[in-house]
């Protein structure tokens, strides 16, 4: 038996429910106003959030700009300070001298033989004479040095600048140090000086009372690396470092 197909329903299809609206115009206006307010509120919230983020970025930029400015100023200050407070370069003198006479310079005649032991020098500090076979390395010293080694350095053309450590201190010592060349000079205290400062080269010596005496650079210009020494142009390094070398 053939099944009977289902008969279409005679009931009409239901239409989708329409969006409810208020039949009261005043109520409908209130609903519309509420929707607008909600939209405006959301817009204001988004705007406030955007402004907040924008302000945050501006503050961040301001902080980094301030930090960068401070760093830049610090670098400039450091550069200026390094220039202003940098130590002055060593004085430069002409080797050999030109025979200029300097008031107060004493001239001697000393022998030049390598010996062992202590030497009884004719001058104090010595301005030449017999000496140890090992020379003293040139440089700045804050302790007294052995005569016999320093004299050997003078034999090579060095100038030995000695000072009374009880009289030449602080600014006075700084002034004296500033007159020194970078090589072929020994600066050291010396015990028993009869003058605050004594400059000695081979067979020449000058005694002064002040580091500001204009004859100090004159003496160095004339006798620094003097060629009238037993061993001109021999080394003033590579031998003995005395105590207190700076």
TrEMBL record:
Residues 8-17 have a biased composition (Basic and acidic residues). The chain crosses the membrane at residues 62-85. InterPro entries: DUF3105. Residues 1-44 are annotated as: Disordered. Residues 21-35 have a biased composition (Polar residues). Keywords: Membrane, Transmembrane, Transmembrane helix. It comes from the Bacteria. It holds the Pfam family DUF3105. This is DUF3105 domain-containing protein.
């Amino acid at each position: 038996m053939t099944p009977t197909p289902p008969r279409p329903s005679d009931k009409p299809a239901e239409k989708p429910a329409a969006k409810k609206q208020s039949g009261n115009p005043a109520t409908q206006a209130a609903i519309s106003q509420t929707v607008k307010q909600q939209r405006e509120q959301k817009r204001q919230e988004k705007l406030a959030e955007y402004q907040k983020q924008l302000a945050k970025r501006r503050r961040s930029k301001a902080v980094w700009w301030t930090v960068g400015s401070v760093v830049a100023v610090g670098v400039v200050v450091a550069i200026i300070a390094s220039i202003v407070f940098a130590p002055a370069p060593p004085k430069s003198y002409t080797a050999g001298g030109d025979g200029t006479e300097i008031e107060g310079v004493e001239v001697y005649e000393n022998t030049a033989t390598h010996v062992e032991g202590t030497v009884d020098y004719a001058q104090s500090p010595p301005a030449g004479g017999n000496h140890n076979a090992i020379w003293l390395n040139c440089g700045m010293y804050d302790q007294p040095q052995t005569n016999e080694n320093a004299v050997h350095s003078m034999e090579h053309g060095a100038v030995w600048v000695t000072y009374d450590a009880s009289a030449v201190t602080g600014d006075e010592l700084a002034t004296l140090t500033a007159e020194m060349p970078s090589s072929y000079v020994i600066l050291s205290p010396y015990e028993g000086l009869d003058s605050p400062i004594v400059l000695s080269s081979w067979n020449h010596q000058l005694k002064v009372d002040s580091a500001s005496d204009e004859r100090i650079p004159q003496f160095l210009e004339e006798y620094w690396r003097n060629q009238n020494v037993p061993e001109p142009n021999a080394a003033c390094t590579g031998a003995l470092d005395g105590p207190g070398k700076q």
